[in-house]
Amino acid sequence: MKSSLSPKGRPSAGAGRRRPEASGWVLYVAECADGSYYTGITKDVEKRIAAHNSGKGAKYTASRAPVKLLFQEPQAGYSAALRREYQVKKLSKGRKRRFIGGESLSRPSPQAKMSFQKNQKRRTRLETKPRRRKGKLFRKRDVKIKEATPK
Questions:
Q1: Across the strands, what pairs with 73?
Q2: What mean pLDDT value characterizes the chain?
Q3: Superfamily of domain 20-101 in the CATH hierarchy
Q4: Whether this model's pTM surpasses 0.85
């Protein structure tokens, strides 16, 4: 049996890593009273479903209570759970039914970006500085709007 200690008596590099199920984050799908599906992530599924049913959960489920849990899936961590939630929320209702029924859905890669992140350009330091116009500092708040004069 291999020891997780290095020759110097310190824990080895991989000794402190957790398994995916150990993170505690869970993706869940619940069915609302009107037949719609609600997808979310949490660390305590039973507590979260109780919150949805009491009206203290999400706004969406407050008006569609009671909800019942249909599906749950443990995730590797918070960011993996967010990526998976986004992936499942994009599915059509029919595809969600098949996913809940057991049809596989490939997991998003750790580098996967959500659609609102894909086309964002990082701003450079120069782009964040205020613009200059004719030698003067120009900001939107400095511009005066001409008031309409009655004719």
A1: 27
A2: 76
A3: GIY-YIG endonuclease (3.40.1440.10)
A4: no
